[in-house]
Amino acid sequence: MKDLKPEDINVIVATDCGSTTTKAILIEKRGDEYRLIVRGEAPTTVEAPFEDVTMGVLNSVAEVEELSGRKILDEKGAIISPAKGNVGTDIYVSTSSAGGGLQMMVAGVVRSMTAESAERAALGAGAIVMDVIASNDKRLPHQQIQRIRHLRPDMIVLSGGIDGGTTTHVVELAELLSAADPKPRLGIGYRLPVIYAGNVDAREAIKNTLGDKVDLTIVDNIRPVLERENLFPAREKIHDLFMEHVMAQAPGYKKLMTWTDAPIMPTPGAVGLIMKKIADEEGIEVVGVDIGGATTDIFSVFQGTFNRTVSANLGMSYSVSNVFAEAGLNNVMRWVPFHMNERDLRNRVKNKMIRPTTIPQTMEDLIFEQAIAKEALRLAFIQHKSFATVLKGIQQQRTIADAFAQTAGGLTLVNMMTLNMLIGSGGVLSHAPRRDQAALMLIDGFMPEGVTRLSVDSIFMMPQLGVLSTVHTKAAVEVFNKDCLIHLGTCIAPAGELKVDYSSTTRREEKEILKFKFHMPNGETIEGTLKYAEMKKFPLGFDDKGVPLKAKATLEPLRGFDVGAGKGTKVEKEISGGVTGIILDGRGRPFNVPVDDKIRVQKLKEWMIALEIYPKEALERL
Amino acid sequence: MGHAYTPGLKVTEKLLVTKKRILPLKGEVLVKVGDKVSPDTVVARTNLPGNVEPINIANILGLPPEDVPEHMLKKEGEKVKENEVIARSKTFFGLFSSECKSKSEGTIESISSITGQVLIRGNPIPVEIKAYLEGEVVEVFPKEGVSVSTWGSFIQGIFGIGGETHGELKIVTKDNTEVLTDSLIDKECAGKVIVGGSLVTSPAIKKAVSVGAKGIVIGGFDDKDLREFLGYDLGVAITGSEELGITLVVTEGFGQINMAERTFELLKSKQGKMACINGATQIRAGVIRPEVVIPYAGDIHQKIETEKFENVGLQIGSPIRVIREPYFGKLGKVVDLPSPLQKLESESSARVLEVEFADKKRAVIPRANVEMLEE
């Protein structure tokens, strides 16, 4: 990095080289604050016939030049630095997921302990974990060996044992690795990087077993004692090796590495970084999701702990058929307020899979696609909840009540009631024709409880801001808050359910479950009640500067329902507005869709009309 | 912004088709540049390292791991047979002995004094790569494989299942709209690549497999039948390794869709010729589509006047096919290309085009939802 003090940095260019497009953003200091000026994009040029990632970078930066009037590239196509007047940039940073991102395999002794810690380290660093090999994963050794050989990952993390514990098992794993003699995905001429992050006492034996066959690096144990995870050294090493080996093999990256003022980060790693920073800075709990064509990434920060999961085959185009297969027809159709022929539906889904770039033209098609998105989010979140847990395998003090609860340990950290903010991004959320649709997809997919702010990252610049936060936190956080997020508003969902499922014969939905009062910024007071299985929306927008307006909410849930302070307990809270405003969700938690098909369709239409999700006339027609 | 439409799949009468035939690991190339090959010619061969079988000698013989090496009867690198004793321990002044036998034939790969584990590497697994096409070897990659070229007709499908195969082309439907049912398939189809019209039914596929047909080329296929045929719901479009006794190449998509007339006519004109087909499909970065290659006999070096198709993008008059509802599968010609974004019924804003269908009816469609057809 150049010798510039953070306060002297006025112009920043950041790029994200994705698998299909390279996105560049220009940030400038205007007065006292950093703001996004323009963004540009161009196709990524990693694959043939270009095979040089820097071409896509230069094209996207050239578009930024055109749009902003700032000259950033010199005649030779190099980035001009530092900035002088309207020429050049002070720093340039980049992330990358081109060429399939960082694909890793992890190995650990016990699946739910060291192997899971290794998986957490890899995911946190932004990798796609192709497989987890563990001594107790129920596969026979020769099956494990075949799998390792078949996968060709970019890198392997090997862990196992607490410091001072038994060494046999982890060395056994090393022997399996050695027998498999794994080859890296890219570059025939180099040896596969393997990071050993296990029991310190086994280091010598690991060196003897693997030293000749792979490029072995040893870092501190990922699980030095059972009660503590130490993921940082392994994550850092993964980033270093990503730069040294994986990126260096990808076409054009050697050149790109010399241009940037901070190491190139894997895209999801950078997103995780910015999310963690925001959560730390504001002291809030956050869940973020990026739903793409092939995969869905979920990030969360609960109790200060960051977790990330990648659901490799849940997505809206390449993987759409898999969402359908995993969720099942009925789960997708429960969100659709009309009937469709199964044969036709199945063919539609498969046709989207084989022609992934098409877009919904009719309202019917849009509703169906958003129904699939809700299921993709729900499934990805289930995976995330089971992964984002307190450490497993630790002795816990239990009361007799816990014994009845029958939890197997490894309690999830995810608590929908304490969650403060839900951030969505990815085509189906960011490009929904109505922002209310994005809000409802987030609500139906994640089922937030109590009071939760909703937002979408409209142009997905979290990756660039993440890598920027490593060199200039202030700029990254300011741009994140002011330009990155589109605030949708606040969802208020009392948790609890009425004992009997609502149906046509019993009108339980008539029952009131929440009294609410909003003191709006214009002095007006809105007061009312929310019935079970009812949804309501109230506008609460932005001030002149585009900052979301705030309202003071008094929420009185009825017995058996909770909005954050316990069942039946009143909550007073400041809530934020946005494009959608305030959404009251009286469908209860856990949410059960009406079993009777006729009532289901009728209720869905009611909710969608109340929240203005789709045009009323279209819903009535379909 | 790049092209906001899907470039069409290739359907070409004459094309120089070149295929790389590469081994998974380095090995031996069996042909040289200029050699004439047929689909079944083996062009390269290698041995994959055998499977590894670990045996925990320490556990079996009840020894501390560090004592395992001295009880081994076989050393690293030595060959062993199945059930051969590889380690023996004696206890109680040699009165009792316990043995450990090899579970498979192979070579002792390693003996560990830390884990007490012995790894036995099975015999190498031979792998052969065939030419797949009828043509000529044009390039040799030493120890890795070759490139084979041929002049031929080339048809790309949209989706397929099953791997490489070849057989004589046989058209069984009267035109590109007829459904391929089981009644159209008989013993004559054995060893053939059969061509149908708008849809292949599940009983027809089963019959084709039972009579020993090599492949089916068809316009459309129902997902419900796909699930039944595969035995599972296909989640991600990565195919080619299925072993179902037949290779399927779908040219248009899922559902009943007429095979493009041009494709059908081309196949019909090649009736009786040999077709090399591959159902392998991968719809991700580095897209792989299924294909039909009908090789021409003759010199690959001859200059043949080929059809020129320049990818000029969508223009007024370009023939297109709609690839999404509500006009899915319909063919027409572009009559207008307005540049400003337009609001669709779904309320999304997108770049659109106006198309005139064969029945002279017109419609406005997002450019992302059409694919170009080659004239």
Overview of this structure, please?
The complex is a heterodimer of chains A (622) and B (375). Chain A is an alpha/beta fold and 622 residues long. Chain A has three domains: 6-98, Nucleotidyltransferase, domain 5; 101-255, Rossmann fold (3-Layer(aba) Sandwich), CATH 3.40.50.2300; 288-392 and 411-501 and 585-621, no CATH class. In chain A, 34% of the residues lie in helices and 23% in strands. Chain A is built from 19 helices and 22 strands. Chain A has an eight-stranded mixed β-sheet, with helices on both faces. The longest helix of chain A has 25 residues, at 363-387. Chain A starts with 10 loop residues before the first strand and ends with a helix. Chain B has 375 residues and is mainly beta. Among the domains of chain B are: 52-122, OB fold (Dihydrolipoamide Acetyltransferase, E2P); 158-289, 3-Layer(bba) Sandwich (Glucose Oxidase, domain 1), CATH 3.50.30; 319-372, Roll (SH3 type barrels), CATH 2.30.30. Chain B is built from five helices and 31 strands. Chain B has helices at residues 57-61, 68-71, 202-211, 223-230, 261-269, and strands at 11-22, 28-29, 36-37, 42-48, 52-56, 79-80, 85-91, 96-101, 106-111, 117-122, 125-130, 135-141, 145-156, 159-161, 164-171, 179-180, 192-195, 199-200, 215-221, 238-239, 247-254, 274-278, 281-282, 291-295, 319-322, 331-336, 342-343, 349-350, 352-357, 362-366, 370-372. In chain B, strands 1, 3, 12, 13, 14, 15, 17, 19, 21, 22 and 24 form an eleven-stranded mixed β-sheet that branches. Chains A and B meet through helix 3, helix 4, helix 9, helix 11 and helix 12 of A and strand 5, strand 10, helix 4 and strand 28 of B.
